[in-house]
Write a structure and sequence with these properties.
There is one protein chain. By secondary structure, the chain is α+β, with helices and mostly antiparallel strands. The protein has 4 helices and 3 strands. It has a 3-stranded antiparallel beta sheet, covered by helices on one side. The longest helix is centred in the N-terminal third of the chain and has 18 residues. The protein starts with 13 loop residues before the first helix and ends with a strand. The model has no long low-confidence stretch (mean pLDDT 94).
Length: 116
């Protein structure tokens, strides 16, 4: 049973899922817009919004935590720039827009992007 289990499984082990979202979040932070499946977009939104909220307060513990989670110093630097951009906003930094399904397997697709 899945009592008190958060998040989606994506039929992957915990390590593979962690690496998948580390790469997705890194590319999303760099490009600020991404086309992916709807389920991945919803999971990514909760992860990246927590990162941006952390980046709004630039101190050593937040820097170390974000480097540990993302493992790319360039992306963390960009994240702290985003934190400055959203300093006066209390949440809701990301928009998810549903688009047409993928032709190969009819997977539900979505565009995930940062709000300007």
């Amino acid at each position: 049973m899945r009592h008190r289990k958060r998040g989606r499984k994506f039929t992957k082990s915990k390590d593979k899922s962690r690496l998948l979202f580390r790469n997705l979040s890194s590319s999303f932070i760099i490009k600020e817009k991404l086309v992916t499946t709807e389920a991945k977009a919803k999971e990514l939104r909760s992860l990246v919004e927590k990162f941006i909220t952390r980046a709004k307060n630039k101190n050593l513990s937040n820097q170390r935590l974000l480097i540990k989670k993302i493992a790319n110093k360039f992306v963390v630097k960009k994240l702290f720039d985003l934190g400055l951009r959203y300093k006066n906003r209390s949440g809701g930094y990301i928009r998810i827009t549903k688009i047409n399904p993928r032709k190969q397997d009819s997977a539900k697709m979505a565009i995930i992007e940062l709000i300007k």
